[in-house]
Amino acid sequence: MFEFFFILMVIYGAYVIYSGAEADEQVNNPVFVGGNKVAVKVPIKVEVSKKTATKTKPVTSKAESAKPTKSRVKKVAAPKIELRTVEMKNPKTGEQAKVANNYRMVKRWIKEALVEEGLLEKIYKTNEMDDTIKTEVAKALSIIKAMDKYKV
Fold it and tell me: Is the pTM of this model over 0.70?
């Protein structure tokens, strides 16, 4: 039974590929009739943008035009934040650590340095992190990575 379905699937796959190739061949090659080239008319898909569609709208009654339309909500793009991993040095102990953009994986002394430099209010726990705090932390990490005091 399995072999029968397998053979049917192979035949169907071959048919799909053949019909796709045949349609492509008809679009690209003109037909020769009596030694003369005759172009084959192939329907072309025409996409109408929303701007042109709104210009050609049929006239509607006042009741229909009074309906509220959906307005697009513009999302504010998040500021670009440095994503590369940087090697930082603790000025007090001389310890070196790699720092990426993930606050959870940052060493404790770097979190303390963020608070000491005034870039963050406090050291955040993982369950306290929301979108606004994550962007604030990411900005703070990119600033502290650029400070000469912590560069290797």
Answer: no
